[in-house]
UniProtKB/TrEMBL annotation:
Residues 181-399 form the Peptidase C45 hydrolase domain. It holds the Pfam family AAT. It comes from Urochloa decumbens. This is Peptidase C45 hydrolase domain-containing protein. InterPro entries: C45_proenzyme-like (IPR047794), Peptidase_C45 (IPR047801), Peptidase_C45_hydrolase (IPR005079). It comes from the Eukaryota.
Length: 409
């Protein structure tokens, strides 16, 4: 079957059928079931939890029989938010979609689909279900989930090498980790593009084997490219890192699929294996938590199966959006360097001081707590390994305005 042009994705949202290397079989019998059968196999409930204004929805998808069923349920529940995000996301509209219509994009998209769908067929089925459930063109869902793996290859205006020039990376997220005799916490600012404001939600799901997870999710994306935990006592937060283009492997495993896989980790060792074994395209920084074992480790990864591990201790460990301990050629991000410099000036030895740091706005140009115009702190999360809770805050965390307190065990 030949390559299907991007124009067709707008009229046939569930038919992503590019050529040869980009075959898109549904892989799952659930894709051929009637919608009422899907609903029966995925016992879902729609619930709004948290604050009275409903700023953060929690959807309990119940026990789902397969990836497509879970994606379909999430897509149906958050169809409005997913469609809204796709309309407002300028990265999608002005960068990803135009590039996807070019001949240069075809082999890259083909390779990304092949490598990720073959290694993670259930998670690929989730993408298909999310597109079908929300009524959004499948191409849009694929592009936002692969955005970090695609953007480095988008030619920049005036460039002559066919690849995007090195530029200022996204200032995505800040973390502070502390494990001492009295405190064991990970505090995290979830920072993102303005297009994500109002386009995030929590997904809870139970797998056929009984494992359950809770994940903060960007509309239209796999759970979770942000933070989450599961019933095995494994939790995580994430920070982007900026390898230069030469450090990126085209068409390899995508970050969103790795973090989705983390939600099914059996323990800390298994979580590290799930991070370090795939041959990834773009590196990432993972803050892994063993709730039962009271341990936190930061794992930085890069293409070529490179990784480095730092175990958190009594000295606060702050991570923004540059590699700290893995030796990788990276973009010198002034935003991250400014946040790291400010964090080094602050003392963190408790939950309160950690939240104060993440709410810091002393640097007018590059504050740790972001309020625009492009990057915003969407929420702040505090993982307390002693209380075994994950607490989500709205607004500046200095104000301690709690949206949800989630027991992790």
């Amino acid at each position: 079957m030949g390559w299907v042009s991007p124009a067709r994705f707008h009229t046939q949202p569930s038919q992503f059928a590019p050529a040869t290397a980009l075959t898109c079989s549904r892989r799952s019998l659930t894709s051929r079931l009637r919608l009422d059968e899907i609903r029966q196999r995925c016992n879902c409930s729609n619930r709004r939890m948290g604050d009275a204004s409903g700023e953060l929805d929690v959807f309990d998808a119940g026990r789902c029989a397969g990836g497509y069923a879970l994606g379909l349920a999430v897509g149906r529940r958050f169809a409005g938010a997913i469609r809204s995000r796709m309309r407002q996301d300028l990265v999608l509209r002005e960068q990803l979609l135009p590039f996807a219509s070019t001949a240069a994009a075809r082999p890259l998209l083909a390779a990304l689909q092949a490598s990720n769908s073959e290694r993670y067929p259930r998670y690929w089925d989730e993408l298909l279900g999310t597109a079908d459930g929300s009524g959004v063109p499948l191409l849009h869902v694929i592009l936002v989930n692969f955005r970090k793996e695609i953007q480095p290859f988008i030619p920049k205006a005036g460039g002559d090498d066919g690849r995007k020039e090195e530029g200022e990376p996204d200032g995505d997220c800040s973390d502070v980790l502390v494990v001492s005799d009295s405190t064991a916490i990970a505090a995290h600012n979830e920072d993102g593009n303005v297009a994500l404001l109002g386009h995030t939600y929590l997904v809870r799901a139970t797998l056929p084997d009984g494992l359950s997870f809770t994940a903060y999710t960007y509309a239209g994306e796999l759970p979770s490219c942000a933070f989450g935990f599961n019933s095995n006592g494994v939790a995580f937060t994430l920070d982007s890192v900026p390898p230069v283009n030469d450090e990126i492997a085209a068409g390899a495993i995508a970050r969103n699929f790795v973090s989705r896989d983390l939600l099914e980790a059996k323990d800390l060792e298994d979580a590290m294996h799930r991070i370090c074994s795939p041959s990834v395209s773009v590196g990432h920084s993972y803050n892994l938590m063993d709730v039962r074992g009271r341990r936190i480790v930061n794992v930085e990864t890069a293409s070529g199966n490179r990784f480095a591990v730092h175990e958190a201790g009594a000295a606060p460990f702050f991570h923004a959006n540059m590699y700290r301990h893995l030796q990788v050629k990276q973009v010198q991000d002034e935003n991250s360097m400014s946040r790291e410099k400010r964090a080094a000036q602050c003392s963190v030895d408790s939950k309160e001081t950690a939240l104060s740091l993440l709410g810091d706005t002393a640097d007018d140009k590059y504050p740790i707590y972001m309020t625009g115009p492009t990057l915003h702190t969407l929420c702040t999360v505090l993982v307390d390994l002693d209380d075994k809770t994950m607490t989500i805050y709205r607004g500046n965390p200095k104000n301690a305005d709690i949206t949800l307190v989630l027991p992790m065990l």
